[in-house]
């Protein structure tokens, strides 16, 4: 801890009592936001027995699934370096364990992160950091009888079962709305069916979502699904359609489509982190010790941040000299995934200054 930081803490401690700030990361409530995801380098596979052949097959399947989770994109499975590595999946395994669930025997495979990262780096394949952009999913369905309904977190629908499986398998924070009175006031059934951009953006703000995927789906008497989708991310609106012969497989395509877009935006080739940069952060809204402590912990949690030192203190503003394992553009992108820091004098994606000015908004 630097002398300035020690002085800063001492001054605040003497001025007011210290209170504990509790942050609850909720999955399906309006307080949800971009959250770190765990288990990127592990996968559980169902096996028939504990034979060597079954184990080797499980290694290969788990390896491919982990590559998709870590990169966010299926296309990298076709990369020559990945295809060469698949038959040697066991060389990347760090730990395995068996367990029985009902009548199923499962093998939990944990891969060595450093070896996987090295493989991807040599292949110049981008890695999607564990702090991932959240997707608010807003679906309006018209059944074969003509009734239109919006799907919420308490809905029992085959479409949402796929969504939850996808979110788990791909390690993507997919938020499903509560559809309480506030939600229904923000987005009516008619607005949901019309894919009203303004209403959907307001819903995204309520849930602190980094993006919104909204769809209107028509289910035919033959159980076919015809859908029009709209993906809202930053100031972009991407529209696409999708038709499937079965409700049971429908959601894979739209979710994969937007996950690929987010992974392409946030994914970084690890060698880029070998670059070094330094930036001055000016953070306003730091009014007490708890704010300062929460800010420092938040910055330390970002993988692009190497070191943070207090440079200056002014009223409710702190200036920090931040050493980066990457560029200031990387830093601004990682910060944009959360809701704790809001830019004051620049737009994300247009970072040119040595000084980045933010406002601390965590309550």
Biggest sheet layout:
6 strands, mixed
Strand content bin: 25-35%
From the coordinates shown, what is the CATH architecture of the largest domain?
A: 3-Layer(aba) Sandwich
Q: For the residues shown, what is the average pLDDT? A: 87
Text of the CATH class of the largest domain: Alpha Beta
Radius of gyration: 23 Å
- How many distinct domains? 3
Count of alpha/pi helices: 11
Explained architecture:
With 363 residues, the protein is an alpha+beta fold. It folds into 3 domains: 110 residues, no CATH class; 84 residues; 135 residues, Rossmann fold (3-Layer(aba) Sandwich). The chain has 11 helices and 16 strands. The longest helix has 20 residues. The N terminus is likely disordered.
In short:
With 363 residues, the protein is an alpha+beta fold.
Features:
five-stranded mixed sheet; six-stranded mixed sheet; single chain; globular; Rossmann fold; 3 domains; 16 strands; alpha+beta; 363 residues; disordered N terminus
What order do the helices and strands come in, and which of them pair?
Layout: H1 3-15, E1 35-36, E2 42-47, H2 52-71, H3 80-85, E3 93-101, E4 104-111, H4 113-122, E5 131-132, E6 135-142, E7 148-151, H5 158-170, E8 174-175, H6 181-186, H7 189-194, H8 197-206, E9 211-219, E10 225-233, E11 236-244, H9 252-266, E12 277-284, H10 289-301, E13 305-314, E14 317-324, H11 328-336, E15 341-343, E16 355-360
